[in-house]
Structure formats: C-alpha cells, structure tokens
Amino acid sequence: MRLALLLALVAVACGPSFQAVYECDVHFEHCYALEETAVSTALKRQCWQDWLKGYTYGQSRDRIEYASKRDAALSSDPLLSSVAPNPGPDPLGDHAGGPAPTNAFAPPPNVASAEASGSVPASPDAGSAKSDVASRVPPGAHCGDACVKTWSACSEECEGGASCAPCDRAYRTCVPACFQ
User: Fold this and answer.
1) Domain check: are 29 and 89 in the same one?
2) 21 and 94: one domain?
3) CA–CA separation, 69 vs 51, rounded Å?
4) Which of 18, 34, 47, 171 is deepest in the core (most CB within 10 A)?
5) Are residues 149 and 62 in the same domain?
6) Phi, then psi, of 45 in degrees rounded to 5
7) What backbone torsions phi and psi does residue 126 show, to the nearest 5 degrees?
8) pLDDT tens, 138-169?
9) pLDDT above 70 (res 111)
10) Domain count, the chain
C-alpha cells in the first residue's frame, strides 16, 4: 500500500506543473491570435519559432505539429503565410489532429482512437492527392469571378476617355468581401 502511494506521489511530482503548462498554453494562444491580425510574416514566424524552442513542455503532439507546420509555411511560401490557418480545408495539408485548438483550457481532440480504429487513412495515395488538388477551387474564387465580371461591365462603359475610378473603387471593395 505504501509503495503504491509512493509511486503515485512520484508520478505526480515528475509531471509538468500547472504553471508551466499554463504559460505554454498562453504563448500558443498568443501566436495563434497573431495569425488573425495584420502583423508581418516575420513576427508571426518568430512567435512560432519561440514557442517551439521554449514552450512545448507538457503540450500535446497536435499543437507541436501545428506550430511546426505554420513555421515551415511562413518561412517557405509567402502566399501561404498570408492565409489564415483555418479558412476551411487546411492550407498546410492533411491535419491528422482535426481543427487547430481554439481554447487553452479545452482538451485537444482524441487522435489515438481514430488512428487505432482505422478511420483515418495512414497516408493518402499520391495519385488521388493530385487529382484532389486539381479539383479544388481556391477560396473566394467564385465571388472573385463575379467581381471581375462586374468590373469588366463597368469598365466598358468608361472607355473613350471617361474615368474608371468608380469601377476600380467598386472592385476594391468587392474582392475583400469574398474572403470574410
């Protein structure tokens, strides 16, 4: 009985402290919130790198993978770095853990049970992945096409010396609305 109590006490004492886990959660949420703001790519990348270097203690694997993917995306592709991390399908590839965490106090999604039951494919077939990408439409493409058509119709009226500034202003307000 005493041995079991001693082992339980040692197991609790060797785990991450609540304060350490809380600090790591706060820093993760800070970096995640930066993704929704208009700060520079360099600041976003620096935040994720700092989190990966010093705040992964006691964190779940899905958060560490997410931070690694964001760091890689921000360093390699300027187009991906401007895209928010969760605009529908994951722009960084297949995210095995499901959606990214949104609350520091919510438990991460259960990844182990889905993999064990076989409901999550281990690795997608390369041929089907290429056809999947080819059949997808970029976010806001349909709305953007409508903005272009409206601008084209408006521009035809202003040919012949007339100013097209109203058409351009309407187009500038139309396109950002496609991504909200």
Assistant:
1) yes
2) yes
3) 13
4) 47
5) no
6) -65, -40
7) -65, -40
8) 777 778 788 888 878 887 877 665 678 888 88
9) no
10) 2
Structural domain harbouring 167: 141-177
- The answer to whether position 125 is within a domain reads no
> Which residues lie below 8 Å from residue 109, measured CB to CB, with a gap of 6+?
62, 97, 98, 99
| Chain-centre distance for alpha carbon 59 | 18
Does 75 share its domain with 158? Answer: no
pTM comes to 0.39
From the number of C-beta atoms within 10 Å of its C-beta (0-12, 13-18, 19+), residue 44 rates as buried
Q: Is 17 exposed, middle or buried (0-12, 13-18, 19+ CB in 10 A)?
A: exposed
In sequence order, what are the residues at sequence separation of 6 or more whose Cβ sits closer than 8 angstroms to the Cβ of residue 14? none
What's the distance, Cα to Cα, between the start and end of the chain in Å? 60
Is 123 contained in some domain?
A: no
DSSP element (H, E) containing 94: none
Let me know whether 103 and 155 are in one domain.
no
Contacts of 60 (CB under 8 A, 6+ apart): 97, 108
Residue at 8 is within a domain? no
Measured CA to CA, the distance from residue 20 to residue 123 in angstroms comes to 34
Whether residue 108 sits in one domain with residue 24: yes
| Distances in whole angstroms, Cα of residue 55 to Cα of each of 19, 24, 59, 99, 110 | 12, 5, 8, 20, 21
